[in-house]
Design brief:
The mean pLDDT is 95. The strands form 4 sheets. A 7-stranded mixed beta sheet has the order 7-6-12-13-14-11-15. 33% of the residues lie in helices and 19% in strands. α1 runs parallel beside α13, α4 (115-130) packs antiparallel against α5 (141-149) and α5 packs antiparallel against α6. The protein contains 13 helices and 16 strands. By secondary structure, it is α/β, with parallel strands linked by helices. It is globular. It starts with 9 loop residues before the first strand and ends in a 15-residue tail after the last helix.
Amino acid sequence: MTLNDKNYDYLIVGAGPFGSIFAYEAAKRGKRSLIIEKRSHIAGNMYTHTENGITVHDFGAHIFHTDNKEVWDYIRQFAEFNGYQNQVVANYKGDLYNLPFNMNTFYEMWGTKTPDEAKAKIEAQKEAALGGLNGHAPRNLEEQAISLIGTDIYEKLIKGYTEKQWGRKATELPAFIIKRLPVRFIYDNNYFNHRYQGIPVGGYTQIFEKMILDNPLIDVQVNADFFAHKDEYLADFPRVLYTGMIDQFFDYKHGELEYRSLRFETETIQSENYQGNAVINYTDAETPYTRVMEWKHFDGLADEGVTMITREYPQDWDRTKEAYYPVNDEKNTQIYKAYAKEARSGNENVIFGGRLGQYRYFDMDQVFNAALNEVRHEFNIPADFNFAHDETK
């Protein structure tokens, strides 16, 4: 008995964005795919559902933001997007500050009213704490943060949050994690700098339903474990796109890659407005969660008199938990390189894609772009081809 009973061209492991986009575009080119997904739903971590008239993001807040017009036009083929802009509030032991760091934050922290006053405050704190770093570059996240924003903001708004997020002291984390820390000397609370921003009206799941559930050339099996029949799948399918953990694919032979995981607690509250903002970050070390999302503020939709919140708790990862963030330190980078080398040299019929298959953190737009580039490579499509305007049938 073959697992490829319909002459599929592709087996796609994972019904998240990378696999779904690839299957959708392959179908446009006449290719038939079977998608298997170990969870009970499609859409990966972009999965959303509606409850009490509220669109809930089941795996944390997902705000689509990009400067890539092709990706922006591409995703809007499948859903209408609102104009939501993320304006985060930080709660440090009951004191509230605007994020990302901007003139509002500096005024709330120090009472400074001009960019020159704020810059002078930051420079004085940098010099006092680091002494110019004695000629060397920042060696860890703490030094990197202080060199960018000074000690007050680091201690109140970065240190506790980051150490909770990564489960390590800031002095043990690499500097590059916050190399692009947004610092603005204008009064602007928009969390992202990107030109295109928003959330799909009605949530993200509809996008993947239109891509893969409504497509006659794509079949989907949920609650399906690739590793229960790995050898048979690899033998029966001519091409496999694998979006799971690359170390698991190779039976952890070069060592286990490290991740951080998350746990979510969602609560329904009889209130019109619980916290007054879509996202509030809790930046002190004592609060066990990193942020609270109030979902109705993302699109204004909810049944009367009710709201829903989700608290997000970082946690250590093990093989029983979902892997969210790769720990891209030197040790894990070297382990990943060993797997990537093996993937290139001995598995010509397997494509490794997505955040787990490539062991890197992707924003949503980066996943979409990477998937489209994989389609370009697989089907010899010119680099300047625009998928958002593709009329291939």
